[in-house]
Design goal:
Blueprint: E1 2-3, H1 6-11, E2 18-24, E3 28-34, E4 41-48, H2 52-66, E5 68-75, H3 85-97, E6 104-108, H4 112-122, H5 127-152
Parallel strand pairs: 1-6, 2-5, 5-6
Antiparallel strand pairs: 2-3, 3-4
Length: about 160
């Protein structure tokens, strides 16, 4: 199941569970995880974009090792809310991993990279270190936004 609605996604996860977020870049995929109680998101790693089969194999390994219940994928909308060609790419990626059998939430990620970049600059992180960390940190930013929305949902 691929959803853009937090309620539909939450309904597929009645017992909660750890979530994984992906920030899909052209050269890397940022990966982040949250705890089973949906309290906090943590940046983990970046996966180099090579062949999809290799990327998917790495995701399968992470899902198994981290006992992941659902996946959040950043949906890079334009500032006016319309969908860009990058949104089409994110939707295609979601369709290509849907066979993993986990619910997938496409979450609006507007300004996530910019927000993370500002935070890293404020922490005086060097340009080289920012480049290495930005995608995983953006995935954590996306995931934190999604879990904040999930825990704010009224009980159905």
């Amino acid at each position: 199941m691929i959803a853009t609605d937090a309620r539909a996604f939450a309904d597929c996860l009645p017992g909660g569970g750890r979530l994984m977020a992906l920030d899909l870049g052209s050269k890397t995929i940022g990966v982040a995880f949250c705890d089973a109680g949906w309290s906090f998101a943590t940046a983990d790693k970046t996966i180099a974009r090579t062949k999809f089969t290799k990327e998917k194999a790495q995701l399968v390994d992470l899902i198994a090792r981290q006992a992941i219940a659902g996946i959040v994928i950043g949906l890079p909308r334009n500032m006016d809310g319309s969908e860009s060609p990058r949104c089409q790419s994110a939707r295609a990626f979601a369709r290509n991993i849907a066979d993993l059998g986990l619910p997938i939430l496409l979450w609006d990620e507007r300004l996530s990279t910019a927000a993370v970049e500002r935070a890293l600059v404020a922490q005086d992180v060097s340009r080289a270190k920012r480049a290495a960390r930005i995608d995983a940190a953006a995935a954590a930013y996306i995931l934190q936004g999604a879990i904040d929305a999930l825990v704010a949902l009224p009980d159905a």
